[in-house]
Automatic annotation (TrEMBL):
<keyword id="KW-0521">NADP</keyword>
<dbReference type="InterPro" id="IPR036188">
    <property type="entry name" value="FAD/NAD-bd_sf"/>
</dbReference>
<dbReference type="InterPro" id="IPR020946">
    <property type="entry name" value="Flavin_mOase-like"/>
</dbReference>
<dbReference type="InterPro" id="IPR050346">
    <property type="entry name" value="FMO-like"/>
</dbReference>
<dbReference type="InterPro" id="IPR002347">
    <property type="entry name" value="SDR_fam"/>
</dbReference>
<comment type="similarity">
    <text>Belongs to the FAD-binding monooxygenase family.</text>
</comment>
<comment type="similarity">
    <text>Belongs to the FMO family.</text>
</comment>
<keyword id="KW-0285">Flavoprotein</keyword>
<dbReference type="Pfam" id="PF00743">
    <property type="entry name" value="FMO-like"/>
</dbReference>
<keyword id="KW-0560">Oxidoreductase</keyword>
<keyword id="KW-0274">FAD</keyword>
<dbReference type="InterPro" id="IPR000960">
    <property type="entry name" value="Flavin_mOase"/>
</dbReference>
<dbReference type="Pfam" id="PF00106">
    <property type="entry name" value="adh_short"/>
</dbReference>
<dbReference type="InterPro" id="IPR036291">
    <property type="entry name" value="NAD(P)-bd_dom_sf"/>
</dbReference>
<protein>
    <submittedName>
        <fullName>SDR family NAD(P)-dependent oxidoreductase</fullName>
    </submittedName>
</protein>
Length: 765
């Protein structure tokens, strides 16, 4: 590919568009900017991309002035988990590609998705200013021209994707050094430091790489660390270390951390053995140090570790240990300030008080930021997730304003946990730091809740004015094969949902309606049900309906519901979601309480199924989905009545799956563990089973997505959380171990329950 790429529009010549003010401005053509450009293009959103350099790639171009790249730099995450979605890195690449290969990969990505023609190279953004109404004024000028001509352009929105590693963070005391002081950004190769006494300050990935580079070249190389770090080898058991945790059941965080720390102590050894400080944090609570090259350099004596710097005077550096030493050069590998120089007053930080889902500015409408914060996983997939959320939100502002308004409310009021339960160290680098798995889960929940498509599939084109039948063909063409096999046509389906007004039922109804299904919502409440049906999307002209005021504890309820359902033009799926849990020891429960709970959770669903199966047989794609519980597979000692009802429901569902298979009616029982709903809140306050909090309570929208997915991909049993499925199978294999497993789960779950109760208190305040 040519060294330079032709600009799409120089200053003074805006890219053609029927309505220039409807365009989105994307600042930067590095990896985050390219992710944004692809998502916008595939979502049908007009945009213009501004890049001050003469090619794409951002920091991965080592020739770019002011960039942080150096000769030995490689990805610290493996190519397997680091590629853009739907564009894997070449199999010829090494597991940890070098900067030149990543640059070439970015260039091929831009060419493959037709992004180059929309990029204006050599254009620098000087300032962005919001206008009333949500539009933006962007001042641009030729790159590198301090007094050259500038112009102001108006855009509907701005995506800031200019990156974070441009402004070095250098401690003030290093400014007293009389020798050469270089930020790590200015380091390229060790050759120019031959024969020098060099102090490298900071033991992040760059600092360790630089120290290892210099160890065999400099007359002396000292590495200064303020605190202890964990060192993760690039390979474990012959595989890239970051691929070992993918594809299997997810263990609770406490167990994963303890197991990984023990493995590192076995494989790498304790850092103290190399004269390094003991880590002052648990593994995964700080940005990972990937690679052990610096440990080999320390072990061979070419790099000497030291503690924090106490004072600097001339060329003399005094360390916290009291040791003093003179140096010719100090290289400050002390991180970067996450800044937007063209918008210093608009974004004051990258934590969740400033950015929703690390991308949506909370204080400014139509301002988005990609790639400014950091994560413990591959950056490119996270850029994709954020970009596709931004792009589909912007598309909705024109084609689905109601949904866009709903998401805008989330931007201001929703604060999802993106830490994955980790307590990240309180260093500047970890401001707004996110756990990659937690971010992926939050993004997946957002895609499901909003009815958007994920980058793994690509967005379905705008369906404005498209018939339900045609839109279904589009969705099937874009969906993975495992979903196509279900042949469930949401656009013509009528789906009955019991327990529709509850915390989980509401999400199920919304997700069904967004997919085009007509929802018949049932619950004992009247007012909440009417409000729910009124709020359901009806994009394809669905006529949703409510059947309220029927208590499933009533022996006549199933018959009355069946009578109402016979008036429907058709019935394609029944989602039996209603349930209840009272809790308490068996000896403390009255007969009426016992009968009511068993009836609502087990008897009523079977009575309703008996009456609706004849109606379902008339459907071209009938489905039955029952909402069970992990408590119906793994017994909890605190609630035998609930366990009895859910164990019974599971047995009935599995039996019906076999019995109705010949009729072409698949039956699925979905087995979630604790769900963050009002029912769980009540349980937690009166004394819930601690084992329910072994992992964080599942978000109702995630469980709802599994329920809806079961219509498309029916199977006998579905677990929204992989760990639950693993636990269930283990208990079924060794039921005698249940008391010991239960006691251990209770002990491990108590901290999680305390965190959940604290979260509830914060919500109330």
């Amino acid at each position: 590919m040519d060294r330079k790429q032709e600009p799409a529009a120089a200053v003074g010549a805006a890219a053609p568009d029927a309505d220039p003010t409807s365009r989105v401005c994307v600042i930067g053509a590095g990896p985050a900017g390219l992710a944004a450009a692809r998502a916008l293009r595939e979502s049908g959103v007009a945009y213009e991309q501004l890049e001050r350099h003469d090619r794409v790639g951002g920091i991965w171009d080592i020739e770019r002035e002011g960039g942080p790249m150096y000769d030995s730099a490689t990805f610290i995450s493996s190519r397997t988990i680091s590629a853009f979605h739907r564009f894997p890195m070449p199999a010829s690449y090494p597991d940890y590609p070098g900067h030149q290969q990543i640059l070439e990969y970015c260039e091929r990505f831009a060419a493959e998705f037709g992004l180059l023609k929309h990029i204006a190279f050599g254009v620098e953004v000087q300032r962005i200013v919001p206008e009333e109404g949500g539009s933006w004024l962007v001042t641009v000028a030729p790159a590198g021209s301090k007094q050259g001509p500038s112009e102001v352009r108006r855009y509907a929105a701005v995506v800031c994707a200019s990156g974070a590693q441009w402004t070095p963070r250098v401690p003030e005391k290093l400014g007293l050094f009389a020798g050469d002081l270089l930020p790590a950004r200015d380091y390229r190769s060790p050759a120019s430091f031959a024969g020098q006494r060099v102090l490298v300050v900071g033991a992040g990935n760059s600092g360790c790489d630089i120290a290892a580079d210099l160890g065999g070249v400099a007359a002396r190389c000292v590495l200064s660390l303020r605190r202890g770090y964990w060192f993760v080898p690039k390979y474990l058991f012959g595989r890239p270390a970051d691929t070992l945790g993918t594809g299997g059941a997810k263990l609770p965080r406490q167990l994963r951390v303890a197991a990984a720390e023990a493995l590192l102590r076995l494989v790498v050894g304790r850092p103290q053995r190399h004269g390094l400080p003991r880590p002052d944090h648990r593994l995964f609570e700080s940005h990972p140090n990937v690679g052990t090259r610096v440990l080999a350099s320390i072990a061979s004596g070419v790099v000497t570790p030291q503690g924090d710097i106490a004072a600097v005077s001339g060329r003399l550096v005094t360390f916290a240990s009291g040791d003093c030493e003179e140096f010719d050069t100090i290289i400050a590998a002390t991180g970067y300030e996450p800044t937007l120089p063209y918008a210093p007053a608009l974004i004051s930080g990258v934590d969740d008080s400033e950015l929703y889902l690390a991308a949506f500015a909370r204080r400014h409408r139509n301002l988005f930021v990609l790639g400014l914060g950091e994560s413990n996983g591959g950056g490119f997939p996270n850029f994709d997730l954020a970009a596709f959320m931004v792009a589909q939100y912007l598309a909705d502002t024109r084609h689905n304003p109601g949904r866009a308004t709903r998401f805008a409310q989330r931007i201001h009021a929703h604060y999802p946990d993106l830490t994955g339960g980790a307590r990240f160290t309180e260093s500047p680098r970890h401001q707004g730091y996110v756990d990659a798995a937690a971010y992926a889960a939050a993004a997946a929940a957002t895609f499901a809740e909003m009815g958007w498509s994920s980058p793994r599939v690509g967005p379905v084109p705008s369906l404005a004015g498209v018939s339900p039948a045609a839109s279904t063909k589009v969705a099937q063409r874009r969906a993975p094969a495992r979903y196509r096999a279900g042949r469930f046509d949401f656009s013509t389906a009528v789906v009955v949902v019991t327990g529709a007004a509850g915390g989980l039922g509401t999400h199920i109804c919304h997700q069904l309606a967004r997919r085009g299904a007509t929802v018949v919502a049932l619950d004992s409440t009247e007012r909440e049900l009417v409000d729910l049906v009124a709020a359901l999307p009806a994009r394809w002209g669905q006529c949703h309906r409510s059947i309220g005021g029927i208590d499933l504890a009533d022996a006549t309820a199933a018959g009355r519901i069946a009578a109402e359902l016979r008036d429907l033009p058709r019935l394609d799926a029944l989602i039996s979601n209603a349930g209840m849990a009272v809790g308490g020891a068996l000896t403390e429960r009255s007969d009426d309480e016992l009968e009511r709970e068993i009836h609502v959770n087990l008897v009523a669903p079977l009575q309703l199924l008996r009456r609706t199966i004849p109606l379902l047989k008339l459907s071209p794609h009938p489905r039955i989905v029952l909402t069970g519980s992990l408590g119906g597979v793994v017994a909890m000692g605190t609630d035998p009545v609930y366990a009895a009802s859910k164990f019974g429901l599971r047995g009935a569902a599995l039996s019906l799956h076999i019995a109705l298979r010949a009729e072409g009616i698949p039956v699925t029982v979905v087995q979630p563990s604790a769900i963050d709903t009002p029912m769980l809140e009540r349980e937690a306050r009166v004394g819930a089973e601690p084992s329910q909090f072994l992992t964080a309570p599942q978000r109702p929208e995630v469980v709802a997505a599994e329920v809806v997915r079961s219509l498309v991909r029916p199977r006998p049993e579905a677990y929204p959380q992989a760990l639950d499925g693993l636990l269930a199978r283990l208990v079924m294999l060794a039921p005698g171990a249940l008391p010991r497993v239960s006691a251990l789960a209770d002990r491990l779950g108590k901290p999680g329950m305390r965190r959940y109760i604290a979260t509830l208190e914060r919500r109330r305040s």
